[in-house]
Write a structure and sequence with these properties.
206 residues, mainly alpha, 0% strand
Length: 206
């Protein structure tokens, strides 16, 4: 009985701390999950679940940045073949494409449900921030595996503490980003020194 009460107490403590049964209060990403949830950047996948180890899709990331920007409607439709007119992310995708933040694959597809990789999220946030300059800094041990389109973005993300490396000084660029990682990256971006949300409206965005 004592053991059962102890387990139940721990479970309720986790829920009270961050609102999600599957986010332990002592998890490295718990604070980030609480931040993105409290600030309306990421919702749970259920009433009390966040699913931290599942991946984040390109459409989801576009939607998150669209929310940060103020969800201004009116962007010209990008007419992607895999983005339905009634999809919840339709306005976000049109906005992201119009502002060159998240582009399609060049064959009429946006890749809505494709997982976003670590180098992709660095590049997307870099574009959203206005493509700021950053010194080369210290190279990751797998630097040569980073795609050319994301090289400057990764340098910027590392210099500003937005995307951290993994064991062995690896960036692991093609690894799909989990929801926990995306939560941490978003919190790092939103709380970095002097961060400003750029004006990325379709009529005058960067």
């Amino acid at each position: 009985v004592c053991m059962l009460l102890s387990i139940q107490t721990a479970a309720f403590a986790a829920v009270n701390d961050n609102g999600f049964l599957d986010v332990p209060a002592d998890a490295w990403y718990a604070g980030a999950v609480a931040y993105v949830h409290d600030n309306g950047l990421m919702n749970g996948t259920g009433a009390d679940t966040f699913e931290p180890q599942t991946t984040t899709s390109r459409a989801m990331l576009a939607t998150i940045l669209y929310r940060i920007s103020g969800s201004s409607a009116g962007a010209v439709s990008a007419n992607f073949s895999d983005v339905a007119a009634d999809a919840y992310y339709k306005d976000a995708v049109d906005w992201a494409a119009a502002n060159n933040i998240v582009s399609g694959y060049g064959n009429g597809r946006f890749g809505s449900n494709d997982p976003v990789t670590r180098e992709q999220i660095a590049a997307i946030l870099w574009r959203y921030a206005g493509r700021p300059a950053a010194g080369a800094g210290q190279d990751f041990s797998d630097e040569t595996a980073i795609a050319a389109y994301a090289a400057d973005a990764v340098d910027w993300a590392r210099a500003n503490g937005i995307v951290n490396g993994k064991d062995g000084n690896r960036f692991d660029p093609q690894c799909n980003a989990t929801r926990a990682e995306v939560a941490a990256i978003l919190r790092n971006y939103m709380t970095m020194d002097a961060v400003e949300v750029p004006d990325n409206s379709a009529s005058g965005g960067k």
